[in-house]
Amino acid sequence: RADPRLGPMARCLSRGRRPGAVQPPAKAFADAVAGREAGLRRLLRLSEAHTEARLDAEEARRELVDALLHCRALSLDVVEAFEKWQEIGIRGGPVFSDPQYIVRMKDDTHWLPESSLGEFLNFSVKSDPFFVVPSSKEPPAAPSNQMTPTLQARRQEADRRKAVLPLQTSLLRRIRKAELVIMKECIQARLQQDDARNRAAQQAVQSRPPSADSTQRAPAVVQELNVAQELKAEVADATIRSVGEAMTLASTVQPPPRPKPARPVDPPVGAFSLCPVAVAKTAMQALFEQYIQRVPLRISSGTEKWKVLENSLEDEGPGGLEWFWIQRSDCGDAPGPSSAFGLAVFRLKRMSTAFGQLLHFSTVEQEGLEDVLNAVKSLMFAYLPIKTIRLTLWYSEQEDGSLALNKEVEASFKKHYFRWFQLTNSCGIRGQVMQRPRGEPPDDPELPTEVLQHQQRQHQQRQQHPQQQERHHQRVPSLELCLGQ
Q1: Exposure string for 458-478, b = 16+ CB within 10 A, e = fewer
Q2: What CATH code is carried by the domain that includes residue 436?
Q3: What domain range includes position 353?
Q4: Are 446 and 299 found together in one domain?
Q5: Which of 30, 170, 349, 446 is least enclosed, having the fewest CB within 10 Å?
């Protein structure tokens, strides 16, 4: 710049180096197109030089790889500059008036597979403006023409000698985005061509001189159109009036009341009854610890401890814990931790199937254990949409020092058809999961009515659509509460 003999600096060297100089999108697109056209001309000259044997094979291979990588980068620049040009809403313009260049990019490299440069790389015979196929290690499938074994061997040897064009992983996302832009522009160009063709056909039809026959029929056609429009208007008015009358009638007719769900049948009253534990959650631990001191060790050692119950205490949904004191039916006093005969804590558990999980079950005496178990079982089957009840009996240290189940407690559960389901371990202690399936009435209460209706609908749907395998969840019976009286 300081030497006046050098003259002004060339624009190609100074472009983009001036601070704050930003090219307009149209100018950037035009420059990118010019650069790509120069890259394509370079490939064409290289093909001619290799065909005329003016270059050595290795030199031509190196030059080809360099030219393709350069042309790939220029093609990406063209598409990205075109996107920026589109954002400002300009198509065409004084700088570059060929917005269809993106469409031509799809097919302007089709000559490469048939050229002499195809000896070095596996070019695609389809659209590949970014040379992705030459970068693949797997060669394209050969045509299914008949060849002699000698020609097949020669072709396989030639394919093995072909190079692989490098492709950086960082360019894959840019290439994918650019291919989508080219595809979109091709679709829009096709739609524009179809619209132009349709408009030309309509103009050709309208420009035809009318015939004598059509001139004579014109008044009759106009009269028929007028009659049709009048009939259409009358039908529309009648439709509007009928719809208005129907809406007025619908507003005066009150919908029928929503049917209330059937109340589950109460289980029969036996020697023991269950009463909900009506205390706050914060006082539940003190209540439980006061009660558990009255339970014999041979019973309390096989039930869940407070830590397990505390973890599930925060759940207030359909799967929340249900706490019930157990008392004798002839006892009129309200049960509590110092007077209750037993305690039952259960919940609705949903996994692959819904079942009732009896987390804690204990009594202060061994004699009434079976009657209490029957009362708890009947209550759970009467009010929960379940088909089984599961309870875990934990191993405890026996009098001889071994870890085993309490045989008396296990026998009481087996007498009420609780059977072995699986083994489990928690904190190094083994437990045995017992399961009790729902029986038929009168041994067990019937399934809640709403659940039965839901199962009947499921059965009908399976018969109507046996190919559909959908999972239907059972619904929990609702609790209705009337406020305001």
Answers
A1: eeeeeeeeeeeeeeeebebbe
A2: 3.40.630.30
A3: 272-450
A4: yes
A5: 170
